[in-house]
Amino acid sequence: MAIMDIFFGVWQILTLNVQPVGDELDEETRERMEQRAEMLNREMTRLWQEVEEMSQEQRILEERSQEQSSFAWASLLLSALQHWQCWAIAGVLLLLFGLCWWLRKWSRELEREEESSDSDAEEGEWEEEDDDANHPGKYFEDPIQRRLQNRDRDCEAVKNLVGKFIVLFNNVFFNTWYPVLEKAIEVGSAFEGWSPHEEDIPYCLLVPLKPPRGHIFHLEPGPVWPTRNFRIRVELVCTCGMEQPAGETRCFLHDPKEKQRRNEGPSILHDLCTDSYLDVQKTAERFQKMVRRFWKDLPMSATQRLTVLPSNRSCKFRVTQGWEKSLLIELMFGVQQGNSDIFLSSQYTEAAYTPSTMWPESYAVAEIKFFRHIASQAQPDSFHLRCLQLCARSLLGTEFSTHTLKTVVMHLLTTMPLSNWREDILLEQLEDIMGYLQSCLEKKCLNHFFIGNENVPEEIILPLESRMAEPLNLFQHLLQDPDAYEDAWLEYLVLRCRLRRLLLHGR
Fold first, then answer.
1. Spatial separation of the C-alpha atoms in residues 371 and 363, rounded to whole Å
2. Which SS3 state, helix, strand or coil, does residue 116 take?
3. What does the pLDDT read at residue 226?
4. Which of 150, 210, 334, 493 is buried most, with the most CB atoms less than 10 Å from its CB?
5. Are the beta carbons of 365 and 187 closer than 8 angstroms?
């Protein structure tokens, strides 16, 4: 706009100051026009200079404006680039998530196709014998078997850890009025090799308790159902005439100093008993505290995590390494009956309420000795544990206990040739197990395996009264309760259907 104003001023000067003249001009007029022309030239020169200066200033302003605009665009571009990187990362994550989802879906489709092909090939073979149907290799290619491949290694780790706890406990309470812990005995399905659990397999060990010096355990029998229950009275005995350990000459019962020491220090009668009877809950609670206390003294505490779990009649805890690997361990406590393989244990009973001073008779140690005996007699490829595992896995969620099926299998292992538990006749063995259970339901009688059974191997040490006793019927309640009998039949039918579906479809 400024340049246009200048040119408009020049145009006014030229038009307003120019006057028409004739062909001939006088001297005065020519001089005046020459002066006017010079003045116009000077004015034009000045105006052009101003125009150039203004043009230069305009260029400078435009350059600055362009620089500012370029800077603004650069900032905008940088911001957009940053947002683009965020969106790119989000896109990559979304792409990875989609890829994982697709791979999982694809693997499931493959599994369904394999299951479908297996079921098509095996359908209708449950009742009839066929070479293909009697090949059980595919029945055990499931997550359970893959998890159990490292079972031996985990068992050793559990035994080593529990052994360290026992050593620490005995060292701390050496020569005190606390019970002495003996070497833990591994019991239960995990150590027997047939755990029905798909994951989180519990490793159970029985810790025998010996009375401290100057004490004895007196066993008092209680009610019998389904096995005997006992109370364990803790009594002081005189050690005056007994052989004493090196450096010990005092009697815990008669020496006044020992009486004072008993009242001031840890005492089994004060800490672990109720009315002089060994209390299950107090014993379990005390050992839970000891596990927490001793954990920090173990080197593995630096890399692994201990979680003590609530339990009234046992010491239960979990040891976790990293985010996934963990071991569930349960310590039960027991008192041995003489030199036999039968213990009074702190395990739970089937009764609705068990007093804390009641210790049920346990055959867990005898059972694991029985399976070890069978393993030493059977062929290395014997499938008796796999049969028990399949049946027990089908039991989950039903009223039947795993101990019922375990008893059935133990009876069959002592009445049938061990050579029959082969891979190629797996279905026949499963039919034998279901047939034996059905026969027991029809007769309402399933005998306890260790009480009054002549087929118990001699390697298993039983109390004389157990060997000479009349057989104990574990289905006695079915004779007395018709509703329970009807429910048991329904549970049996459900179990049979589940086992068939497990074999045909793998689930």
1. 13
2. helix
3. 62
4. 334
5. yes
| Contact in structure between 450 and 364 (CB atoms under 8 Å) | no
For 9-15, what is the mean pLDDT?
Answer: 46
Residue 410 has pLDDT above 90, yes or no: yes
Nearest to 237 by CA among 265, 207, 258: 258
Q: What's the residue count for the chain?
A: 507
**Residues β-bridged to residue 361:** 344
Q: Give the global pTM.
A: 0.69
* Pairing outcome for strands 304-309 and 277-278: unpaired
Check pLDDT > 80 for residue 135.
no
N- to C-terminal Cα separation, the chain: 90
348 with 444: CB under 8 angstroms? no
CA distance 186 to 68: 81
HSE-CB of 231 using CA atoms within 13 angstroms: 14
| CA 195 to centroid of chain Cα atoms | 15
Q: Does the N-terminal peptide bond of residue 226 adopt cis geometry, omega within 30 degrees of 0?
A: yes
CA distance linking residue 474 with residue 180, whole number of Å: 35
Q: Are 330 and 185 in contact (CB under 8 A)?
A: no
Angle at 331 between CA 143 and CA 406, to 5 degrees: 55
* Cis geometry, peptide bond prior to residue 245 (ω within 30 degrees of 0): no
Closest C-alpha to 162, from 172, 174, 173, 170 = 170
Q: What angle do CA 362, 474, 499 make, to 5 degrees?
A: 100
Name, of 56-60, 353-357, 375-379, the range with top average pLDDT. 375-379
Q: Identify the sign of the CA torsion 221, 223, 227, 232.
A: negative
The pLDDT of residue 9 is above 70: no
DSSP single-letter state for residue 310: P
What amino acid occupies position 346? S
> What are the distances in angstroms from CA 174 to CA 128, 170, 177, 343?
65, 5, 9, 24
CB atoms within 10 A of CB 209: 23
Angstrom distances, CA of residue 247 to CA of 279, 368, 463: 32, 40, 37
What is the structure's pLDDT at 121? 45
What pLDDT is attached to residue 8? 45
Measured CA to CA, the distance from residue 362 to residue 364 in angstroms comes to 6
pLDDT at 48 over 70: no
Q: How big is the CA angle at 262 (ends 256 and 266), to the nearest 5 degrees?
A: 165
How far apart CA 317 and CA 294 sit, in angstroms, is 13
**Contact status, residue 142 vs residue 506, Cβ threshold 8 Å:** yes
CB–CB of 430/469 below 8 Å?
A: no
Tokens matching residue 263: 């009242």
